[in-house]
Amino acid sequence: MSIRGGIVGFSPVLAAVLFLLTVDHGEAIWLTIPPTGGTKCVSEEIQSNVVVLADYYVVDEHSPENTPAISSKVTSPYGNNLHHQDNVTHGQFAFTTQETGNYLACFWVDSTHHPQANPLTLGIDWKIGIAAKDWDSGVELQLRRLDGLVQSIRENINYIKDREAEMREVSETTNSRVAWFSIMSLGVCLCVAGSQILYLKRYFHKKKLI
């Protein structure tokens, strides 16, 4: 997760492990929101068809008995609005991703209607993938969790293979274009050299130098 302010050359197994560490996880983070209308955002690159849950809440250390409100907005990689709330001290959002890319969650204080002298602290409990599922205790449920884990690894490996195939296709297309450009450049050079030789021969014959 990045605060606003890829995988290249990995084996499928290593990529799957990194996927579990970075995508299917639950993460609690803290943000400091400026009191003068500034905005703080967090972003996460998520694959399609992944469950996302988040719970956020305002903590005001300077005035805990009068917690100020904030506004929040979550958008998809294509700019679709997935969640938007105004004037809340606590909120939740949940969705299943429809596209692969960076999902952005932004939080801010409306300084016009709620002027603040001090910055606010915002806690976010962000859960993605397997971490977003409600697992209870028990051997059967643990087996179900492991089955979900294996399924996530399989889906991630397929995703990496697809990306690798796309990159290979782009690389082959680029190499082909470079090769054709090199051939055309060589042909132009040969044509220019040939025309210069013919021009010099005619010039020397005309001047009776050869």
TrEMBL record:
Localization annotation: Membrane
Residues of the signal peptide: 1-28
Location, primary (coarse class): membrane
Transmembrane intervals: 178-200
Keywords associated with the record: Coiled coil, Membrane, Signal, Transmembrane, Transmembrane helix
InterPro entries: Emp24-like, GOLD_dom
Family indicated by similarity: Belongs to the EMP24/GP25L family.
Any Pfam family matching the protein: EMP24_GP25L
Domain of life: Eukaryota
Cellular component annotations (GO), alphabetically ordered: membrane
Chain ranges of the GOLD domain: 39-130
Protein name, as recorded: GOLD domain-containing protein
Bilayer topology: Single-pass type I membrane protein
Listed PANTHER family: TRANSMEMBRANE EMP24 DOMAIN-CONTAINING PROTEIN
